[in-house]
Inverse folding.
């Protein structure tokens, strides 16, 4: 049976001077659905695994797949609009701007290429060119990051100029809305400049253990806008670079990684203080991570209300790795050595003086609880 296409080609409705038919709607739906399917496919795990075989960074793969996904969706959407009977010229400038759709797609491709080139430049410098230069590893990373940022900025400027977006026009636009954008981008610009200062002055480097505000951990990566700090709980915290410039930062591994640990210890009155000193010194020397030089030392801090207060001082490099574990191990050793020496760690004590009168004292009946099968003697 022959299908009469004339019926499906009849106009259903008009958009301006153009009409949309049933066939146009079917073509629009088919192409738009194809664009959605391809967009979802480009963001699938299979594509990411395939891209990772080319030794690309995970963030770069995510950016590229997202951009390609959006580009494919836009491409098929515009193609579907043309197929529906509403002509949308690829080479014609869009309303309000002088760029055509082809220029926009070319701009996207060139920007992706610039980001890829910047990423590859950083990797090549850090892993190949500077690896055998004799420079400090942290300085190698700083130089690689700075050169990568320079490549990115220059590349973006060249791309904008070659696609018809002149920086002079952007300057005029920025002057018109500069106040609003300046307030919104103030934090980003500040963090970016702070990142450059960190890479140049190197107050912190990769692998340092730092404390800034309530965040304490090991520096894993220094990016243009933020720094990744990994805590001992294996939690990655992203800290804005501005914090490392404006706030007080404690860098436990800056220069000399050796740190002095102070462990307070209280013993009961009447204890032999020489035995206490010997036991605490032995505990400090026994820990494998404690440094032999400077040697552990013991200080008698004060005579407290309930105890004689000492302080064990031990030098170690563990502050950059596991400071809490080091303190805990020292406390275990201290308790064991004091117990073996017969030295008591006291409870808080209070003395009560009665100036006059009497207080009746009665003895409570003894309460004996026996478990089944046990013999009880009174």
């Amino acid at each position: 049976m022959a299908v009469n296409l004339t019926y499906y080609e009849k106009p259903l409705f008009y958009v301006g001077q153009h009409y949309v038919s049933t066939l146009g709607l079917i073509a629009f739906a088919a192409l738009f659905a194809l664009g959605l399917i391809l967009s979802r496919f480009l963001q699938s795990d299979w594509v990411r695994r395939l891209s990772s075989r080319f030794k690309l960074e995970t963030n770069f793969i995510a950016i590229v797949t997202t951009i390609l996904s959006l580009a494919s969706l836009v491409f098929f959407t515009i193609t579907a609009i043309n197929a529906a009977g509403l002509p949308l010229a690829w080479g014609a400038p869009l309303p309000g701007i002088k760029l055509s759709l082809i220029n926009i797609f070319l701009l996207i491709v060139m920007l992706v290429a610039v980001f890829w080139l910047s990423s590859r430049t950083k990797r090549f410098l850090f892993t190949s060119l500077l690896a055998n230069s004799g420079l400090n590893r942290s300085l190698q990373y700083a130089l690689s990051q700075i050169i990568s940022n320079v490549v990115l900025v220059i590349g973006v400027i060249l791309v904008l100029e070659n696609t018809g977006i002149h920086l002079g026009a952007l300057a005029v636009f920025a002057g018109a809305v500069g106040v609003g954008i300046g307030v919104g981008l103030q934090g980003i610009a500040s963090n970016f400049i702070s990142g450059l200062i960190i890479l140049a002055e190197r107050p912190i480097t990769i692998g340092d253990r730092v404390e800034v505000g309530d965040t304490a951990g090991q520096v894993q990566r220094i990016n243009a806008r933020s720094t990744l700090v990994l805590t001992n709980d294996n939690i990655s915290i992203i800290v804005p670079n501005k914090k490392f410039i404006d706030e007080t930062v404690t860098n436990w591994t800056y220069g000399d990684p050796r740190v002095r640990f102070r462990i307070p210890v209280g013993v009961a009155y009447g204890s032999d203080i020489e035995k206490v000193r010997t036991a605490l010194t032995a505990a400090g020397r026994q820990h494998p991570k404690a440094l032999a030089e400077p040697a552990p030392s013991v200080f008698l801090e004060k005579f407290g209300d309930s105890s004689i207060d000492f302080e064990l001082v031990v030098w170690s490099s563990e502050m950059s790795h596991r400071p809490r574990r080091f303190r805990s191990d020292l406390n275990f050793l201290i308790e064991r050595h004091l117990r073996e020496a017969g030295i008591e760690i006291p409870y808080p004590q209070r003395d009560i003086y009665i100036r006059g009168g009497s207080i009746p004292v009665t003895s409570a009946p003894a309460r004996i609880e026996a478990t089944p099968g046990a013999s009880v003697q009174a």
